[in-house]
Amino acid sequence: MNQRSSKRGGQSDRGQQRGGPGRDDQRGPGRRQNAREVAYEALLRIDHEGAYANLVVPALLNRSTLSDQDRRFVTDLVYGTTRMRRACEALVERFVLTEPDPEIRTLLRLGAYQLAFGGTARHAAVGETVELAHPRVRGFVNAVLRRVADADMVWPDAATRLSYPDWLVDRFVAELGEFEGLAALECMNEPPPVHERTDGYIQDQASEWVADLVGATSGETVLDVCAAPGGKATAMASTGAFVIAADLQAHRAALVADNADRLGYRLPVVVADGTAPPFAAATFDRVLIDAPCSGLGALRRRPDARWRITSADIDDLVAIQQHLLGAAAPLVMPGGVLVYSVCTITAAESIDHPTPVGFEVITDALPDPWSRFAQGFRLLPQDADTDGMVIIRYRAIT
User: Fold this and answer.
1) Start-end ranges of CATH 3.40.50.150 in the chain?
2) Quick check: is 343 catalytic?
3) For residue 271, what are the contacts with CB-CB under 8 A and spacing of at least 6?
4) In this predicted model, what pLDDT tens digit does every residue of 26-45 receive, in sequence order?
């Protein structure tokens, strides 16, 4: 996409082509924003200021007066347009002859998402989106979106159709094979289901299964090395085990404490570096390392992550994961259990890690839908409509 052209949306005055000023000029004092205006504001921040969708959307909704239905609509528009950015860009690009401002590009993608993926009626998708543009470019936006609505699309490749970077599609196909790889990517283009635990905590079911597989029981002492936001730590605490939750960053550790307090669990939380944990050796019956990872198995929850993560990032994460394994292993008492999990599907971030010294792999089979994956087990997003996960369990040799 060429953003260096001096011609913007068929006009010569760049300032008159920007979406932001056009919207501000039309609102007037005290005018309430509608759902599409809130969504467009969020997308501008995500696309052009580097904001995170999961942070900016709640912030904008909290200051709005939108109904619950409109709030859900905003979330779908922002998450969907961000998730399907590449596909929406391909839908629009066919009909853009002169390069518009980046803000108008974002607006065109918002309209294309509604038309192609959002199930929005054509008149609303086109008409209401056009209203967000500066009056001087409304004709341009209207013409492009009407062409998008009328024309059939022939996708040039799977990466464009599924709206992922090329490297990521190549990685999934290499790791899983073409059929399973594309199926996983397809699944992660759908909004995740809402799963509520019996204690009221909202958590992906695969994450709850990982916490269960740690095997914590009443009377045991358990460490969750990378605990934020606290889903797995509180799930383990619900068994009656004494769980200590640790996290590197203070604000993330505070999330764990807040969630534990809200659920009524006694859960000490410490700010600690998992690669240099402040605990004595052989202290814990069980240790969970839910390691920082690429998150490639949970992309549907983080719509902008597919555009942020790079292949090189995985190499950096692998090094961190190995440090965490090496530092946590000595904390497990003889006969105790060390559990390593990641919400990704890559071998480099899971089964390629060597077994820690002094440990043996627990090879007991896991129930469906887990599938054996070398010395561990893997769950693909399409297997049970959950996040993709890998889990490996080790026992300290006595």
Assistant:
1) 205-396
2) yes
3) 246, 247, 248, 249, 250, 253
4) 444 456 789 999 999 999 99
